[in-house]
Amino acid sequence: MRIQDVIRRPLITEKATIQRELAETYAFEVARDANKIQVKKAVEAQFGVKVAEVRVAVMHGKERRQGRFFGRRPDWKKAYVRLKDGEKPIEFFEGV
């Protein structure tokens, strides 16, 4: 898997914003088959920071319906990335 394919998008939610401000922890949606080592390398390569810890969680897709027809959203994976002490913040999140 290429490094560019690991990180899908940043997660900008209320919980992620609080964690970013208090604990220097950033949340990303990542590829379903990516592991912690790949996520760490991808963040370090794309943003030029040192990563202290990576936690991953598989989010199960919700069931949705349109009238009498049922469907299901796909499962996806998110990663919480904590930077090492003294690292500069990721500029991507500063404008949000």
Describe this structure as you would to a colleague.
This protein is an alpha+beta fold. The protein has one domain: RRM (RNA recognition motif) domain (Alpha-Beta Plaits). The protein is about 25% helix and about 35% strand. The chain contains 2 helices and 6 strands; from the N terminus they run βαβαββββ. It is globular, with a radius of gyration of 15 Å.
Give structural attributes:
36% strand; 2 helices; Alpha-Beta Plaits; two-stranded antiparallel ribbon; globular; 96 residues; alpha+beta; 4-stranded antiparallel sheet
Uncertain segments are: none
Q: Which sequence of SSEs, written as H and E, runs from N to C?
A: EHEHEEEE
Largest beta sheet: what is the strand line-up? Answer: 1-2-6-3
Q: What is the number of beta strands?
A: 6
Strand content: 35-45%
Q: Under the CATH scheme, which architecture would be assigned?
A: 2-Layer Sandwich
Total individual domains: 1
Query: Please, how many helices?
Result: 2
Broad structural category: alpha+beta
Q: Provide the CATH topology.
A: Alpha-Beta Plaits
Regarding quaternary structure, how should these chains be classified?
single chain
The percent range for helix content is: 10-25%
Globular, elongated, flat, extended or rod-shaped: what is the shape? globular
